[in-house]
Amino acid sequence: MKRRFRLTRSNDIKRVRRAGKSYAHPLVVLVVSTASENTHRIAIITGKSVGGAVERNLIRRRLRAICDHLLPEMKPGFEAVLIARGPSQKAEFRDLENVVSSVFQRAGLINISNG
Length: 115
Known about the structure:
4 strands; EC 3.1.26.5; ribonuclease P activity; Ribosomal Protein S5, domain 2; 3 helices; alpha+beta
């Protein structure tokens, strides 16, 4: 995911987590807040509940790749924080991809047609 699509400052992440609406799944949690600009930025958080540094980095890379794949289908005007949960470390990539896609769809940020 390119740098301009990442939410990197801790103050911005805290603001989104405080004021945003959350969409939960056993593997990930998505917190979404509207942005004033016509852009979309995403932060990915993996806490110690996911595992050690190696596992956290692997999940972070997977989630970043999934978001990068979904980026062209996303509607602009939001900031999101994607938080990995503990069971996501044991999930297959395809399952994680389906979960992230469905959570973004539930939040109304993408429209994915079946097929």
